[in-house]
Design brief:
Layout (H helix, E strand, L loop, with lengths): L3 E3 L6 E3 L4 E2 L5 E2 L2 H25 L8 H9 L5 H10 L1 H10 L5 H43 L13 H4 L4
Antiparallel strand pairs: 1-2, 3-4
Helix pairs in contact: 1-3, 2-5, 3-5, 4-5
Length: 167
């Protein structure tokens, strides 16, 4: 017998037989939704580790402004932010080595400004790749549907349309 549960991703109420129960015991609207949330959580952890490495925070905790600025860009997705960090690594390292900062706050703000200025470009590229993948799938489906000749449509028995330009 199904019981009522609350989905963690949408907050909607659903039944336990319709919702996906994750390994952590929480319910999500679907398995895909859980996987996307899990991927984003892993990407956020990788972003934080990457930022710790860039800023040389081995023994000391990072200022909270780092997490705040990172979470401000979460609409793009942490996987996009991580890709942006990797692409801008040379710019960031140069700035951290050659620029003078008054305090740690300004250093972090400058680093995150570099990321913020480039994240939109990476986001657009990722969206274009997703659209291209969807178009490829649709064109494949369209091609396979072209060869599906299932019975007659009642328009006659003329087979010349299948012969092409044969004279």
């Amino acid at each position: 017998m199904a019981r009522q549960v609350k989905c963690q991703d949408t907050g909607e109420k659903s039944t336990s037989d319709k919702a996906y129960k994750a390994p952590n015991g929480k319910y999500y609207s679907s398995k895909e939704a859980y996987q996307e949330i899990f991927i984003q959580k892993e990407a956020r952890n990788e972003c934080i580790a990457y930022l710790y490495e860039l800023l040389d925070y081995d023994d000391i905790p990072a200022p909270t402004v780092l997490y705040k600025l990172l979470d401000e860009m979460k609409k793009c997705g942490y996987d996009v932010i991580l890709t942006t960090l990797e692409q801008c690594e040379d710019k960031i390292k140069w700035a951290l080595d050659h620029k003078e900062f008054n305090n740690e706050y300004n250093r972090i703000k400058y680093l995150m400004a570099i990321v913020r200025n480039n994240v939109v470009d990476v986001y657009k590229v990722k969206q274009d790749q997703k659209k291209a993948a969807i178009i490829d799938i649709k064109s494949y489906q369209h091609q396979t549907n072209d060869y599906n000749i299932g019975g007659t449509s009642g328009k006659g028995r003329d087979v010349t349309k299948f012969l092409g330009d044969v004279e």
